[in-house]
Design brief:
By secondary structure, the chain is mainly alpha-helical. It has one domain. 88% of the residues lie in helices and 0% in strands. It is built from three helices and no strands. The longest helix has 51 residues. The chain is elongated and about 80 Å long.
Length: 108
């Protein structure tokens, strides 16, 4: 057996380890990063819609937030379906409502 066969075997083993261990880790990390980016954009658009439209006009705020989120995600090179974007926005709205109720409870 010569050194070439040993090196080829070693490369094959390292390629298998990369494919089975390292690549799934990278893919999972990117997905988590993308979801984090979506959550941050959802928070930004919810705050913007709240500032522009105030306490009323829920459907207009949602439409505005959805359109703005799609544009911001597109600029970042990210693509999510509308249901996912809507869910992220609604989660941020719920979080904002909880924070406002907590603040009102402290003030009373």
């Amino acid at each position: 057996m010569n050194i070439t066969q040993i090196l080829l075997g070693l490369i094959l083993i390292l390629g298998g380890i990369f494919t089975m261990v390292v690549w799934p880790y990278i893919k999972a990390h990117v997905s988590a990063e993308q979801l984090s980016m979506l959550a941050g954009i959802a928070q930004t658009v919810v705050f913007a819609a709240e500032k522009i439209f105030g306490a009323k006009m829920g459907e207009n705020k949602l439409a505005y937030a959805l359109n703005l989120a799609k544009k911001l995600l597109e600029k970042k090179g990210l693509s999510f379906d509308e249901d996912t974007i809507r869910a992220a926005i609604e989660a941020q709205v719920e979080q904002l409502d909880l924070e406002q109720k907590a603040a009102e409870g402290v003030q009373e």
